[in-house]
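Two proteins follow. First one:
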Amino acid sequence: MYPKPVSTIDLRDNLAQYLNLVANTKISLVVSKYRTPLVIIKPLTESDLISPPPDSYFGFLSKTDKETGEEFVNRLRRSEKENNYAKNLLR
């Protein structure tokens, strides 16, 4: 089935109706602004709800995979004054 075109203004004015249409009939919507397609709104599938394993997030902020939380905080600190302020907060 082809997606149903809808303008941003029409979607804004009738959002609940369009969301019910997508949920109940499994039709996708192509939202357009000034006749230029912007996004597709489609019903959720089982595969959309599966999240990546938690291990895939480990170490994503660090330069190495084994950086501790304290090392991360120290890497973000910009001055000795700020380091001293943080140490005083922990006392």
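Second one, unrelated to the first:
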Amino acid sequence: MNRSALVRSPGRPSRHGRAAGGRRWRRIALGAAGAAVLAAGGLVAAWVVSGSPAPGHAAHIAGSPAPSPTRPPRPRPPERLAIGTIGSYAVTAHLLHLVDRSRASLGPRALPTVVRYPVIPATAAASGRLARGLFPLVVFAPGYLQCDGSYGSLLDSWASAGYVVAAVEFPRTNCQVTSPDEADLAHQPGDLAYVISRVLAISRESRGALAGLVNPAKIAVAGHSDGGDTVAAVAAGSCCRDHQVTAAIVLAGAEWAPLGGSYFAKATPPMLFVQGDADPINPPADSITMYQADRSGPRFYLDLFGSGHLPPYAGHGTPEPIVARVTVDFLDRYLAGQYRAGAAMRRAGDVRGAAALVSGGQPPP
């Protein structure tokens, strides 16, 4: 049985249309799995959380918005390791209490960031020893009124494959805020840049859960919906291009006009665009426009047949495993430099009746 949630979307460009009286509303269609994710706060049920409250609990961080009284409190995840379904590593997590004070005109911006990272191979996970070494970094941007936990299965898959995955919660659009402001998306590329810099700095420290984990030369960004808009700007927008980024994944994103500037005018990193062709929130044309405009390097478009806006990236049913497998293969090829992963990505993305992967400007089916 499908459910839907209506959320107000102030300040959003016309891509989602307007309701009577000039107010914009966004209808998010969720299957049973998606509704359960939102109702439970989207927590993954198998983590070790290092010295922190539950992932996404922005209310526990000084200066951050209090949770809405209409939302149930989030349970603390069980104290055990998650075993990745794709990679050979087990996964644990640590919450960073980040506050960006570098942009004086904005005031302090609380940016709680859940960092998932590999521990020892899953075959010996019970010992809980860390898997030391330099792992590539993926910084993830959630969608509007979402927190990292909504995407827990996908992010766990990336970490299990040998990536440090840092998922930020934006201060005015996360799942806990009582008065969301979607126009704050204008500041989210700067938030990602700050998170990248802080995670790299923490990794350079001699002690701590993340010490010595991150390879500073291998950084990717990924995001969904408004988070995908943010990532597109960081990877390809003249307003916000971050040249530290060497690969990007845009899940149901678009070019966001209020950021200004142009897109794909200069060289961009390898990019993967993922889009459900039945998405009622982000029209497939937005993703196709970006994919076809990107002419400077490797770019791919994963077309998910009959898929909507959130379920392809949150949950465990089809096509979530396809998205997980293709995105891991993309990261393996273009972030970790594993050349054989390119062929694996093409095989994983072509599933009869479910998905098709095209590249180099070839139109999706």
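SUMMARY FIELD: The chain has one domain: 45-359. The two ends are 29 Å apart (CA to CA).
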